[in-house]
Structure formats: C-alpha cells, structure tokens
Amino acid sequence: MPIAHIIGLGKSGIAAARLLKREGWEVTLSDRSSSPSLLEQQQEFANEGIHVELGQSFEPVESIELIVVSPGVPWDSPALARARELGLETIGEMALAWRYLKSPWVGITGTNGKTTTTALIAAIFEEAGLYAPACGNIGYAACELALAEKQPDWVIAEISSYQIESSPFVAPRIGVLTTLTPDHLSRHKTLENYYNIKAHLLKKSELQVINGDDPYLRQQGIDIWPDACWTSVKGEKELLGDRTFGAYIENGWVIAQSEKILPADSLRMVGEHNLQNLLMAVAAANLAGINKSAIARAIAKFPGVSHRLEHICTWEGIDFINDSKATNYDAAQVGLASVSAPAILIAGGDAKEGDDRAWIDTIKAKAAAVLLIGDAASLFGDRLAQANYHAWEIVETMERAIPRAAELGRQNHAKVVLLSPACASFDQYQNFEQRGDHFRQLCLESLAKE
Fold it and tell me: Which of 7, 45, 141, 256 lies in disulfide reach of 286, CB 3.0 to 4.6 Å?
C-alpha cells in the first residue's frame, strides 16, 4: 500500500486525506497545532483508518511516496525542500484534486477581486443549469469535489499564488487574472516573482481573461498575451496597443466579443472595481459558451460576497459594512473609496508588506475617524500621525471597536462604519471569515440593544 503524508489539518488537508484513503493509500495527517478541537478530530480520523500526528513539525522520510501540502504551508519551508531533495513527490491539495477531477476548470487568480469574480462566475454557470461549484479559497476544498459522487460539469477554482506554486501542472480551460499589486512579498520576495507565479496559471490555460485596467498587467502582458480577452470598464475606444478589448463597458452596457450582454447597472455591488469583476466574469462565461440570458439573470440575482463590502445593518442612519476580505492596503483602499463619506474605519490585524500611501490618502479624504485593532495598531497609528492624520485611536479588539464606532458615527454624522482591515487576520482570528463573522455578530447583538 503506497504511503502518503498530508501536512495541515484544515479543510483542504482533511479532504486530501480522505480522497487518498479512498484511492487505497496509507495516509498520515499532521499539524503543528494540538488544540482541543484537533484532538477530537484525531480520534474521528483514527476511526476512518487515517493516522493523525499533532503538535510536531513534519520531517520527510524516504518511505513516503507522496506529500500533499495545504495552502497555508510555505512551499519553501526547510522540510519541504528536504523532501524534494530526497526525490519525494510533493504537491499541493489543488494538484491532487486536478488528478481526479476530469471536468474543465476556470481558474481565477490575482491580488484582489478573486473572490467576487469567482462567486460571479459560479453563479452564472449555476443559472445556466450547470453543476459548477466554487472551490479553492472559497467554497469547497478542491479535493471535496473529487470525493463527491457527482462530478461537476465545471470546476470554478479561486487559486492563490501559494496554490499555484504547489500545483504547477494544473491547466484550466479558462484562466482569469484579476489584478496584480504587491502582496505576500514576505514569501515571494519581489513583485516580479509574484507576477511570474500568477502568470504561470494563465500560461497553462487554454483561454485567458485579463484585467486590462490594471497598470502592471497592461505593462507586462500586451505582447505576452496577444490572444487573451482583455477587459476594461473604460470602453472599446480605450485601445490596448493596437488591439481592442474583448470585454468592456460602453454606454452603460457590458459588451463581450462585440455582443451586448446586459446593462452594467444590473450588478448591485458598489464600486468601479466590481464593474471590472463583472466584466471578467461575463467574459469567462461567454468563452465557456453560456448564453447571455443566463448571464443577465445570474447577475441581476447576485447578492454580493460575504466579507467584501457586505452590508450588515443600518443603525441610526449609519450603515455597518463588513469588508474583512480586504487583507492588504490596495483592497482596503478600494473598499474605503467605494463607500459614502464621512466614514468611521476599523482597521488593523496582522500587518503585511506593501505601499500604504494611496490607502492613507483615501483615509484622509473619507474617514472621520479610524479605530485600530490587533498587532498592527501601533504601526498604523504611527503611519497616520506621520501623514498628519490624527483622528485615530487604538481600541485593540473588535469588542471595543463596535460601540466606539457607533459613538463616533453619531458624533460625526457618519454615513458608514466600515471594517476594512488592510491586514491579515492571524493575530486574533483563524482567518478573515472568522473576523468578519465576529464583526457581524457584534454589530447585530450590541446595536440591537441600543
């Protein structure tokens, strides 16, 4: 019986372990944590014949024939580097799913806009009567789809740079590249490295959809991707070198491959960035052969994405909005630019490298006050002070932020209280979803008592 080792006891690792067990492998799952919940799961997996090791780092041994890595595990970690030196096959969970899923894929990657674009594409395919669930960074783990009795008609996969690194042979039918700005540089070191990882997915894709309004992608890609469907919210006359855009907005209509598809205002989500996400989703659906009536119906029904400019409640005329998915400066700047001023901003968490200048400029233009939480609070306070913005205070936790935001909102006649952290969540939460859920819970509980 071949031996496999899965690193990471999250959703992806669990699905990978069960898939390999079904396929006749001897499987070990390991995780550095040994929390009470994982200890409970350890016994559950033992009953399934899957061995679980907790509280210890993975060390490769030659008897292992396959190592599967969960998305959060650094691809360049010393243990994985040693495994590759030993000649042990080492792949990501996404790559394992690729081996067993025979359906065509749409692969969506980029710095920002991935989740909304993925959710829009999945909604359009569903409206067209296709079984095409979203997976990867949202929805299912890819291996969960491979485990299911019913195989999907299409796989709609949001794929991070980490997942591309560990799944180099995944080759979607359609690859979508949303935006490219500095992110994860602590891991990828340079913007060029980061771009090359993202571009690899598109090179493996049969058809490409690329955001033509993104300055970096335009600069890098016009000649590299001559046959791609480039998109622009600025209209066909905004030429792309000597080529026209494949999908664009003109006179209030979304046009794809020279055909009117639907009015641009059919999408209920705010912000120009969401019009770009709409264009990329429509372009991908059009390339997949989905008829425009299904596309139009899906967009008109689309409710938005949890944790991305998600309206939670209105209290005393102030909208409380959850933008927890904004885990870097660029996403947070877009989120704040999209809401009405004056706003009370809640920001902070596990800080990332990046250029914060546009974000700070938008704070100065739109935020009546900024409440800072998490490990980045002091750093952000210092940066705002250096930029001559002084209406900030450190509140440390979400529990303190919500009532204080309500108080400041009332004092400043604010239109919006916005959670848009510009940070990862790992200092106080397991992920951005848990952070956004906590914000939602606190808003609904504490404001209802007012």
Answer: 256
- Which residue ranges make up the annotated binding site for ATP? 110-116
Per-residue burial over 328-357, b = 16 or more CB atoms within 10 Å of its CB, e = otherwise: bbbbbbbbbbbbeebbbbbbbbbbbebebe
Strands across the sheet containing 229-232: 134-136, 155-158, 105-109, 174-177, 207-211, 229-232, 247-250, 253-256, 259-263
**Binding site members:** 110-116
CA torsion sign for 389, 390, 395, 398 is negative
- Evaluate whether 159 touches 105 at the Cβ level (below 8 Å): no
- The residues, ordered by sequence, that sit 6+ positions from 341 with a Cβ below 8 Å of its Cβ are 365, 366, 367, 368, 415, 416
Mention every residue, 6+ apart, whose C-beta is less than 8 A from residue 183.
Answer: 111, 194, 328, 330, 352, 354
**No. of H helices and E strands in the chain?**
17, 20
Q: What is the Cα–Cα distance from 122 to 39, expressed in whole angstroms? A: 35
Residue 145 burial (C-beta neighbours within 10 Å; 0-12, 13-18, 19+): buried
- Record the tokens describing residue 218, joined without a space: 């335009």
- CA 157/CA 104 separation, integer angstroms: 11
Say which residues have a Cβ less than 8 Å from residue 66's Cβ, sequence separation at least 6: 2, 3, 4, 5, 20, 25, 88, 89, 90, 91
Residue numbers of the chain with a pLDDT score lower than 50: 185, 450
Identity of residue 146: A
Task: State the DSSP H helix or E strand holding residue 285, giving kind and residue range, or none if neither.
Answer: helix 272-287
Residue 433, classified by CB atoms within 10 Å of its CB into exposed (0-12), middle (13-18) or buried (19+), is middle
pTM of the predicted model over 0.85? no
Helix H or strand E encompassing 321: strand 318-322
Question: Which of 307, 312, 314 lies closest to 435 in space, CA to CA?
Answer: 307
Give the pLDDT score at 240.
55
| pLDDT given for residue 430 in this prediction | 86
- Which segments within 48-202 are labelled E, that is strand? 51-54, 66-69, 89-92, 105-109, 134-136, 155-158, 174-177
CA–CA dist 9, 54 (Å, integer): 9
